[in-house]
Automatic annotation (TrEMBL):
GO biological-process terms attached to the record: NAD+ metabolic process; NADP+ biosynthetic process
Reaction equations catalysed: NAD(+) + ATP = ADP + NADP(+) + H(+)
Protein's UniProt keywords contain Repeat: no
Protein name as catalogued: NAD kinase
Organism of this sequence: Akkermansia glycaniphila
Listed EC numbers: 2.7.1.23
């Protein structure tokens, strides 16, 4: 895994922070004020980002996008951060905050570490997902995901059929509620709920995890992230149940029978801020509430 200790360039020591704080709840507004004050005291230049800025604004001048929220807020900013090569951090105002950097109580330590350059940068793999029409060869825009691509049944209580191919060779024909292609970052999210394995960040693999397959031997498969995975909705007994695909649970798109999804490792990596001393094992123990004798 790439984990680098970063030292800010002393010639350019002013840290330019884009603050994404979408919540209007009183507690979130109070935390936002505290964060702004603490950053200003340390000489950081802070601009406020609106959710729309993540799609339209040029963010390349920022050193860091700082989210106040939970995993949902981190996921909303991940693609923009990766596209612009900007570091992503979060102060947890959500429930779990698995992807965030720290809790509200640690704001002073967070800002200290940011300004002293003692933080760790973890490079996280993103997925690049392109839908294309096999007949017309028309391709939709390529989208990025940090956690997973989900191909799911839509507006129906029926199961769906779909084929998954690896570099053009059939992996399996699934009869299920859907299939997930998850990154190591996404292995602790939806894929985990669907019975997929926990994958250490930095592992160069994807997981293909079926959701409730009607076959007890259909399990998650781990693949090298150098492959291209193709997912293709199929007709079943002459009937096509409608399907959707979703990236990080945020955007959903319908997909037709003539379309396929091509899923690859994105050329862009997400640079994720980690507090000094943080490690994945303690995150698993704390956030996934592992129990055990004498666990620290
Ligand atoms: N049955 C499920 O487990 C299920 C169903 C739909 C979506 N999801 C997950 O929700 C994600 C979107 O998160 P949200 O907060 O916007 O939606 P949300 O409000 O539906 O929350 C989903 C839960 O997953 C957690 N989560 C998100 N990313 C995580 C990660 N990388 N590691 C560990 N936990 C994580 C969140 O903290 C939250 O508790 C999707 O990417 C998908 O992985 C899970
Ligand atoms: N666009 C928004 N407008 C208003 N409030 C928002 C917005 N986005 C998030 N919030 C609020 O901010 C808080 C964090 O939301 P977020 O979706 O990031 O995390 P969560 O789902 O609550 O937590 P987690 O995903 O970590 O379990 C929540 O209270 C949510 O209601």
């Amino acid at each position: 895994m790439t984990r680098e200790i970063t030292i800010l360039d002393p010639m350019n020591a002013t840290c330019r922070v884009g603050l994404l704080a979408p919540s209007r709840q009183a507690q979130a507004l109070g935390t936002k004020a505290t964060v702004l004050q603490t950053l200003a005291r340390k000489g950081c230049e802070t601009s406020i980002l609106e959710p729309d800025d993540l799609r339209h604004a040029n963010l390349g001048h920022l050193d860091i996008i700082l989210c106040l929220g939970g995993d949902g807020t981190m996921l909303s900013a991940a693609a923009a951060a990766a596209r612009h090569g900007v570091l992503l951090a979060g102060i947890n105002l959500g429930r779990l905050g698995f992807l965030t950097s720290c809790a509200v109580a640690n704001i002073p330590a967070f800002v200290e570490s940011l300004c002293e350059g003692t933080y760790i940068v973890e490079e996280r793999t993103m997925l690049a997902v392109t839908a294309y029409n096999r007949k017309t060869e028309e391709r939709r825009d390529t989208l990025l995901a940090l956690n997973e691509l989900a191909l799911l049944r839509a507006q129906t209580g029926k199961m769906v059929d779909l084929d998954a191919e690896v570099d053009g060779t059939l992996l399996n024909r699934y009869h299920a509620d859907g299939v997930l292609v998850a990154t190591p970052s996404g292995s602790t999210a939806y894929s985990l709920s669907a019975g997929g394995p926990l994958i250490w960040p930095g592992s160069e693999v994807f997981s293909v995890t079926p959701i409730c397959p009607h076959s007890l031997t259909n399990r998650a498969v781990i693949l090298p992230d150098s492959v291209t995975i193709t997912l293709r909705p199929r007709e079943r007994r002459g009937r096509a149940d409608s399907m959707i695909f979703s990236l990080d649970g945020r955007t959903t798109h319908s997909i037709g029978l003539e379309e396929s999804l091509e899923i690859r490792k994105a050329p862009q990596k997400l640079r994720l801020f980690q507090m000094p001393g943080s490690n994945f094992a303690s995150l698993l123990r704390a956030k996934l509430r592992w129990q055990g004798y004498e666990l620290p």
